[in-house]
Amino acid sequence: xxxxxxxxxxxxxxxxxxxxxxxxxxxxxxxxxxxxxxxxxxxxxxxxxxxxxxxxxxxxxxxxxxxxxxxxxxxxxxxxxxxxxxxxxxxxxxxxxxxxxxxxxxxxxxxxxxxxxxxxxxxxxxxxxxxxxxxxxxxxxxxxxxxxxxxxxxxxxxxxxxxxxxxxxxxxxxxxxxxxxxxxxxxxxxxxxxxxxxxxxxxxxxxxxxxxxxxxxxxxxxxxxxxxxxxxxxxxxxxxxxxxxxxxxxxxxxxxxxxxxxxxxxxxxxxxxxxxxxxxxxxxxxxxxxxxxxxxxxxxxxxxxxxxxxxxxxxxxxxxxxxxxxxxxxxxxxxxxxxxxxxxxxxxxxxxxxxxxxxxxxxxxxxxxxxxxxxxxxxx
Length: 380
Fold this sequence. Notes:
Layout: H1 8-21, E1 33-38, E2 41-47, H2 56-64, E3 72-75, H3 89-96, E4 100-103, H4 115-122, E5 126-129, H5 133-139, H6 141-149, E6 153-161, H7 179-191, E7 194-198, H8 199-205, E8 223-227, E9 247-251, H9 257-265, E10 269-272, E11 275-276, E12 279-280, H10 282-291, E13 296-299, H11 303-311, E14 317-323, E15 350-358, E16 361-368
Parallel strand pairs: 3-4, 4-5, 6-13, 6-14, 7-8, 7-13, 8-9, 9-10
Antiparallel strand pairs: 1-2, 1-3, 11-12, 14-16, 15-16
Helix pairs in contact: 3-4
């Protein structure tokens, strides 16, 4: 790759591309924003809105029209060079006469992986790579992990009181956090391909697990995954309404055969997964999800499932919402159940911690720092 010559102006335009990219809900595709600049002025910009929609570069070219000839493109990810649902962006840039491309990072997808840059350079277009590369990798951390390891990126999310309770001792949990925080949670769902909960959450809350964002005319349909070792999921549960979004129940050989048949006849996917100590083998489940192309899994609990994922070192990111309240109660549920660590010195440490305010609530995002560095975000 060419040596990166960085100026403040180039970082300004790349930050704009990253900001545009964040607007999209593109899973399993990466989030991409593009800005076309000519004579120091933005002549076109765009972002990838959803899987199957035009890519960011194409939207920017359409907005620029003839002004794209001789312009410089700023984009947070290498332009694609292959046919998918849409034509290659590299070809569109060449045809439009773009003079130079600044990309934050190379695409980790083996279908691209430098081939887009090669095509652009072969056509005489100058290519520079590396402006705000770390920010670009973190933005697409789900996509990066999947295409570099072949396994989904797993985020665990929980909403709790300041004393760490996700429900009262009676099981009531509606609502601990306020509406602004819940909107953020729905955006998290939209960023992942799959939303996962344990059977305890289904029995207690009867959730829909769909993406509900009023500003989106067509909210993305995400795979809903229920971890249910003995297939106790009620057949009238809301999550089994496949018209809302597809549903997959991960169970074991202990599941009743007649119930498996009934659910499958309704269009619910029932996956028989190997068991470990009578429970669904979570490693095997992640492999099943990876094989069907799931790049990111958002686990919304409860505490038992989150504890199991942490115990198996399957978690890449933690997102915890804290409300300014105290619930208390020795029998009230916590965000992470299980046995826990025997001593504080053996607790799981977190890195890359980021706090922010959402209405009256607070949200913290961080990455588990596994011993030896395993399991950390690719952005760290």
